[in-house]
Amino acid sequence: MEAKRLILALFLLFLLSKSSAFPSRKSRVHKPCKRLVFYFHDIIYNGKNSGNATAAIVGAPAWGNKTILANQNHFGDLVVFDDPITLDNNLHSAPVGRAQGIYVYDKKEIFTAWLGFSFVFNSTEHKGSINFAGADPLMNKTRDVSVIGGTGDFFMARGIATLMTDAFEGEVYFRLRVDIQLYECW
Prior knowledge:
The protein is mostly beta strands. It has 1 helix and 9 strands; from the N terminus they run H-E-E-E-E-E-E-E-E-E. The chain is 9% helix and 47% strand. It is globular and about 90 Å long. The chain starts with a helix and ends with a strand.
């Protein structure tokens, strides 16, 4: 009888050691299953460039207006965009899709925004969309936002997109390099 109790106790101890109550000390290294790099080009409407603007201020604080970004780090401005996505940093390259969404300048003290957008593809190489959301502390050289889903070739995608401001011209044009690392690929 004692031998059975000892075997049962050892078996239970073995099971407990494998449970989540006692996490393993090994740290897992996550490797992306897919990596993509794109550029998106944002040309904000400034009252004079309606022919080539790809973004517009649709909400502004009481002290601002909808053709010029507000003072105080653009706090309170809500911008909607439909920007071309290219494989290189040339605005005039053939687009492979569109970056569509919003950004909100959300702090008075620091130049930062919150982003919610999709890359919508309809090319021979990619079909579907990748969805992104997160804070964008614009003064940092690189910033990470979450990849929160997708459709088509990117069905249920999860991962990280590292943003880097590649170029800007005043408050009218900027170009972001977007390095996407997907950790859930179907």
